[in-house]
Amino acid sequence: MGMSPARSALIEPTRERSFSDFLRRHEPGLRRALVARYGPEIGREAAADALTYGWEHWDRLGRMANPAGYLYRVGQSKSRRFRRRRIAFPAPEDHGLPWVEPALAPALAALPARQRQTVVLVHGFAYTHAEVADLLGLSRSSVQKHVERGLTALRARLEVSHA
Amino acid sequence: MPDLPEQISAYIDGIAEPVAESEVTEERLRATSRIRRRRVAGAVAAGAAIVLVPALLIAALGLFAGDDPVAAPSTSTAATTTTVPAETTTSVAVNLVEVPDVVGLTAVDATDLLAAAGFGVEATGDANDLALVSAQDPVPGSAVAPGATVRIEIAPHAPACREGWAPELPPLGPDEQEITVIFGCSDEIDPAGVPTTVIRRVPADADPIRATLDALLAGPTDAERAAGLHSFFSAQTAGALDSLAVDDGLAVVDFDDGIYVDGASTSGGSEIFVAELTSNLFQFDAIDRIEFRVHGRCEGFWGWMQRECRVATREGLVDELPFGSCSAAGSSHPPPDLAVDLPEPVRSTRALLLSLAVRCDLHGLDVLAQRDATSIVLSNLALGDTPFATLEADRQGAPAVTLVETLSHPHGAYEGDTGTEVYVWPDVAVPGFDWDTLTDAEIADLSARYEPGAITASIDGGVWAGFSVQVDETGRWRSFAVPLT
Question: Is B318 helix (H, G, I), strand (E, B) or coil?
């Protein structure tokens, strides 16, 4: 499987010349990680807030080794302004995805946040454990542990829904 | 139907549109900047109370303004008030107020002054406590309606601590040593903010790591704060260090409640708060990793910041098993909750004991036992105040995993000597259990559930001979013991 541009951009040491370059390359990974963590409503707003922070502080962030990872943590902080909202995962058919298993949404929502994030990034977007570790600030062994447990729980829930 | 990974990626991408560059705007910046929102909102809130009085007065005066508008008195003490007839054909007068000059003031002083004069404030720029107002709109002296918004532009201001701030010190005395304490410079909510070092003098025989931590917890002096040094630590946190132990690169730092300082548990604040601690401790080569605790528990430190327990390393925070290995290290999951009918304090203590044991937080178990004056009888050795740490370290026992196993059994209960209900694990450890009248079938059943040797010894002695745990109805951990028969 080839490495997607968003995925490869996550860890490549290439320095984007401008914030626009950075946004093009890193927005997908940042948004996916935060949406997986907080649901589409809060996660997307947190990603936009984090990118805005990145824009304001680009002089400093542009020199960082892993600005996407830093902005992920900024996004975590920004998500707190929505803490009164409920984390929710909508039905796939409501978003024009009728071929996606309907039970996937509640199954993902039921996973602990760390398991959901790591499963989504590793199995949904083919990130390596090392890339996810960099993005989320975890150790590789922790990523592996969360992925294994999350995938097991996810498959169990989906099988139950078919039974 | 596509396979699971394909469905996951399609689903996540499908439920949230990409963030476009056009959404990265000044408006969002204002909406999400904590400092600016706090300052501006605070000013507006303060202003609202003050503006309300003149506004009501103006409304009241307006009732008779048509009779004698010039007679309307000034309604503001902080700003010059001019009363002029309205330009419209109505008979209602309009009170205009003069905008004060706030250029050159600090952002905080300017905001306070404008708010006190009844103006709304909209600030743009770098609003830290030391920044100065470089421009304002409307310009000073303009006549505007009461309650109008004044926009102020705040220019970055380099505080003294950014410019090689280093006060001179007298010569070092023979009984003194110098330690370096790292504080922040300015109050930017930015974990990568510029740090500044100060020198402290402590007795020559003091432990420099402990002395540095104590000095950090005491915070900057008034003179240092005036120079722009910033810290979460102050007189409020001085002395909050309970214990410090450094062993094989690992520093275990245990605080008391004094560490709970306002503002440090927020998402932004906690990063700076932790960074202050780690940057000071990682000055010392003897430290590679740090565990922070409050009253012996990592949850006391990290949970207060709504974060999971972490270990600080020189590379950052990691969520590895924070307390190393012990006999319960393989017990990655607490056992199923067999105690659904327990009162909440008992259930909570059981859960805490399991959590501490499976994470090998032996220090936490020892601290909890000390707090609850728990009777610990695990061997004939003198174990002092640290039975769990001592037994596990010396490999003379396996108290952590034994605690997990014991709490995994069904429980019983009895009325203690003070009339307090006491919950006991396992159920056969309840005082008064009749070991003399067991049938062969019952003995076989117990031998299958518990250690057969313990059943035999219990029958011989007439009292449970295995491990037991007792928690009373208030949640106090009463005992962890092998009853001596």
Answer: strand
Query: What ipTM describes this predicted complex?
Result: 0.85
pLDDT digit string (tens) for B291-306? Answer: 898 887 777 888 788 7
Select from B14, B28, B318 the Cβ nearest to the Cβ of A48.
Answer: B28
Q: Report the helix count and the strand count for chain B, using DSSP H and E.
A: 14, 19
Count chain A–chain B contacts defined by CB atoms under 8 A: 112
Q: Is 0.80 surpassed by the pTM of this model?
A: no
Whether A78 contacts chain B with CB within 8 A: yes
pLDDT tens, position by position, B11-63: 998 898 888 888 887 777 766 654 333 333 333 333 332 222 233 222 332 32
Q: How far apart are CA B14 and CA B9, in angstroms?
A: 8
Helix (H, G, I), strand (E, B) or coil at A145: helix
Taking CA atoms, what residue in A is nearest to B193? A60
Residue A75, Cβ neighbours under 10 Å: how many? 26
User: What is d(CA B150, CA B156) in angstroms, rounded to the nearest whole number?
Assistant: 19
- Write the residue in B7, B32, B318 that is nearest to A100 by C-beta: B7
